[in-house]
Amino acid sequence: MSEENMDYDYGQPERKKNHPVRATIITLLSLVVIAAIVAGGYLFSLAKSFDNKSEKIESAFPAETLRPEKKDTSAKNILLLGSDSGGGSGEKENLNGVPNAGRSDTIMLVHVPADRKDVFVTSIMRDTWVPIPGKGTHKINAAFSYGGVPLAVQTIETLLDTRIDHVASIDMEGFKGLTEAIGGVDVNVPTSFTSGYGHYDFTAGKTHLVGDKALAFVRERKSFKDGDYQRVKNQQSFIKAVVSKLMTPETLANPAKLSDVVNEISPYVAVDESFGAVEVGKLGVSLAGVRSKDMHFFTLPNLGTGRSADGQSIVLPDNDAIDELATALSHDNVDEFVRSHGL
Q1: CA 68 to chain centre
Q2: How far apart (Å, rounded) are the C-alpha atoms in residues 304 and 315?
C-alpha cells in the first residue's frame, strides 16, 4: 500500500465505513475471563474450547538478535492489535498472522507490573511518525504493511526499548459478539454526535451500547474536530465499562454467560503460540484483584498533528517523553511516569 493510501486527514467527512475497530484491549479482557474459567474446574472445558477455536500467530516475533533484553521476567508487556475481516484501510493487503488477513490498524501496549496491582494501557496512535526498522520513517501502522506482526513488534520494541512478551489480535466481529454476550454496557457520551458507521445518533449523557451501536461509538472519528484523539477517549471510556461488567459476580459466577463470552470471542482472537489458555489463566489469576479503577489508560506522548516532508497528515511523537516512558517500562515504574505527567 502506498503512503498516500495511508494518509488520514483529521476533521474531514467520513466516506468509508469499514475502518478497523481499535478497542482491542477487549482482547485482554476476554482472555482474563478465560483465566476465571481456567481457575474454575467446572468450566475447564471452555479453556480447551478457547485454545481450539482461537488462531495462533506463527512467528509473531522478530529474530532474537533484533530484540531488547528482557529486564524483568515478572512484569509483562502485551501488544494488542486490531484487524477487520471486512478489509478496513488495508483490504488489499495480506498480513502475516492477523486473523482473516485484515490490516491491523490498532496498537495498544498493555503493561502488567510485577506487583499485579494495576494495569497500564498505552494507546499508540496509528499515524505516529516513527522509524520502522529497515524501511525508513513512516506512520507506525505502516509496519504491518511492510512486515506483518514481526515488524510491528520490532518497531514498537525499538521505539520503547522494551521487550514484548505476548501478542494478541482481535477481529472487530468478535468485539461485536462480546458486547452482545455480556448484554452491553453503559457509558457517558461526552458530546453529542452522529456516527457515520450505521448513522447512529449519540446524545451527550448516559447511553447503553451493544452490538453495532457499540462498534459505531468506538470507531467514529470524523465527527470530532480532533479526530483520533476523541475516538481514543471514547474507546477508553467504553473499555472501562466493559471491564466493570466482565469482572462482576454477575458475569464471573454465571457459567452460561461465560460460555457465551468464550464462544463469541474465541473464533476472532489470535494469540502468539505461547499465549494459550493455561498461560492466560496464570496471568488472569494473578490479576484477580484488579478492577476497572486500577486500569490506567493514556496515549503515547505526542506533540499533536503535523505534516511530513511529503505532505502526509501525521502525529508528531514527543520523543523526550517517550524516552521517559521507555525508562519507566524498563524499571517497571510506569505508575511514577503516569503520576509525573498527570495522565
Answers
A1: 22
A2: 6
If one counts every other C-beta atom within 10 angstroms of the C-beta of residue 326, the result is 16
Please give the helix or strand (H or E) that residue 136 lies within, else none. Answer: strand 136-139
* H or E segment to which residue 160 belongs: helix 142-160
DSSP tally for the chain: helices H, then strands E: 11, 15
Q: How many angstroms separate the CA atoms of 63 and 101, rounded?
A: 22
* Whole-number Å distance between alpha carbons of 137 and 81: 21
> pLDDT tens digits, residue range 286-321?
877 777 788 888 999 999 999 999 999 999 999 999
Measure the N-to-C terminal CA separation of the chain; round to a whole number of Å: 35
H or E element in which residue 304 lies: strand 302-307
CB contact set of 222 (below 8 Å; sequence gap of 6+): 11, 12, 13, 14, 196
The Cα–Cα gap between 121 and 195 comes to: 25
Q: What is the pLDDT of residue 105?
A: 62
Residues 6+ apart with CB under 8 A from 49: 262, 263, 266
- Find out whether 262 and 51 touch, Cβ atoms under 8 Å: no
pTM (2 d.p.)? 0.80
- Quick check: helix, strand or coil at residue 261? helix
Contact 145, 103 (CB under 8 A): yes
Coil, strand, or helix at residue 118?
coil
- Given a contact cutoff of 8 angstroms between Cβ atoms, the answer to whether 122 and 341 are in contact is no
